[in-house]
Amino acid sequence: MTSVAWFDLLVALTAVERLAELVVSARNARWSSARGGVESGRGHFPAMVALHTGLLVACVVEVHAADRPFLPWLGWPALVLVLASQGLRWWCIATLGPRWNTRVIVVPGLPLVHRGPYRWLSHPNYVAVVVEGLALPLVHTAWVTALGFTVLNAVLLLGFRIPAEERALAAAGR
């Protein structure tokens, strides 16, 4: 199997992981709604979906269209970062349990979580997103995708998503 085929498989497995996240998120959204959860920040959600889908598509397109090489000195460390980001993401999901969601849904009366990675960071899931968004394309030197996703993700996270979460938590008294 060529390095490009391995990369395509890695991106496909990442897409399957995203689908698993959506299943967990839908289940957790139902749990939150049943407990009076309030959703905030709906306006930026379609952009998030488009950006994350675009990351996966752009990784494959750039590697194939620009004939990007696999450079071991870059690719192997980037793969380690991709795997570490997946570990951090699922640690966040496990720590928040039914409260984790791809949307901003706050259940009234529940305290903030201060265990797991939330002991050290307010938004550790976004650390995973940032690391993966940079590292996944660089596994096969798709540097245009890595740069583009990183910039657009920073605008989305810092300009919309994190402020929406902070406002929602503040409105719930947390």
Automatic annotation (TrEMBL):
Superkingdom per UniProt: Bacteria
The entry's keywords: Membrane, Methyltransferase, Transferase, Transmembrane, Transmembrane helix
Subcellular localization, as worded in the UniProt entry: Membrane
Gene Ontology CC entries for this record: membrane
GO molecular function annotations of the record: protein C-terminal S-isoprenylcysteine carboxyl O-methyltransferase activity
Family matches, as InterPro entries: ICMT_MeTrfase (IPR007269)
A single GO BP: methylation
Keyword hit for Cell cycle: no
Residue ranges of the TM segments: 142-160
Keyword hit for Methyltransferase: yes
Mode of membrane association: Multi-pass membrane protein
Descriptive protein name: Methyltransferase
Record organism: Cellulomonas hominis
The organism's taxonomic lineage, starting at the top: Bacteria, Bacillati, Actinomycetota, Actinomycetes, Micrococcales
